# Entry
Amino acid sequence: MLSFLKEEGVGPGLLEELERFRRDHPAELTERVPAPQFHYYGREVWEQAVAALLCGKNLLLTGGKATGKNVLAENLAAAFGRPAWNVSFHVNLDASGLVGMDTFADGQVRFRPGPIYRCAQHGGFGILDEINMAKNEALAVLHAALDFRRVLDVPGYDRLPMAPAARFIATMNYGYAGTRELNEALASRFVVIQMPTISPENLDRLLERCCPTLKKKYRQQFGQLFFDLQRKCEGGEISTKALDLRGLLDALELMGAGVPSGPALDMGITNKTADRYEQGLIRDVVAARISPKLTRRELFES
Ligand SMILES: Nc1ncnc2c1ncn2[C@@H]1O[C@H](COP(=O)(O)OP(=O)(O)OP(=O)(O)O)[C@@H](O)[C@H]1O
Ligand SMILES: [Mg+2]
# Structure
């Protein structure tokens, strides 16, 4: 991970600090330290995120879908060498789902620690995924953990101080259905990175990494297609439903498995909207770059 960061161009000063952090905080629960399959590409975001976590801040990553929020969060836990707990937030999540709850085992009441409790204990990275899906009241239990107090108050038990290496990285997506505004008290406990769309150069690297046998000329066309769609979205001609990097990668995977380019791009991109008229517009954008009849043999080196 550290050699990747060096390659990515992250400043030597930050890398030194990161190594010092790793030395100062001995490894724990190594089976929980992520070993990411994908790297996050984007030097500026990396530098901001590493600096914030080194300063002891908690991070909130906001941005559109498939901008790499979860990839970055996992990469960060790996770079800092900390065990990670991922909590998916939803409307019915309550304090006990975060901190823990009493259970009955062997004729006794026992406390079963939740993910936030274990983070606090082991100096872990808590990844609070889609944090704005939960009710704000449920999150009040996190307030003291997230600010200068750095303690977790467990009702009926002692206060647990957060281990020095513990950090929280929350993700949220403003547009998604079912999300709400984060209240100010919670938002004020994070520093916020607005995740940018991947740059053309980095998208090319990502595509090369994901589909190493895709021929270069097609790789470039698929990359351009993504930005064509982005321009159409910005111009208000199509909605953001079809602007989905995840969908593009899925479509490429399907092509690698033998689905022709037309249906694969329908499945990954065009059919994300149900509106026939919009589908037609999207198909035109796609057709300007990629013929719908391309087969695996034409697209990929054998
Ligand atoms: N800058 C980037 N570097 C590397 N991969 C990226 C980048 N941006 C997007 N991706 C790719 O986009 C896909 C989605 O990433 P991820 O799941 O982290 O997105 P997300 O922002 O959490 O999306 P959502 O808001 O829908 O949950 C992954 O395949 C990831 O590799
Ligand atoms: Mg996500």
User: Anything to note?
Assistant: The chain has two domains: 2-194, 200-299.
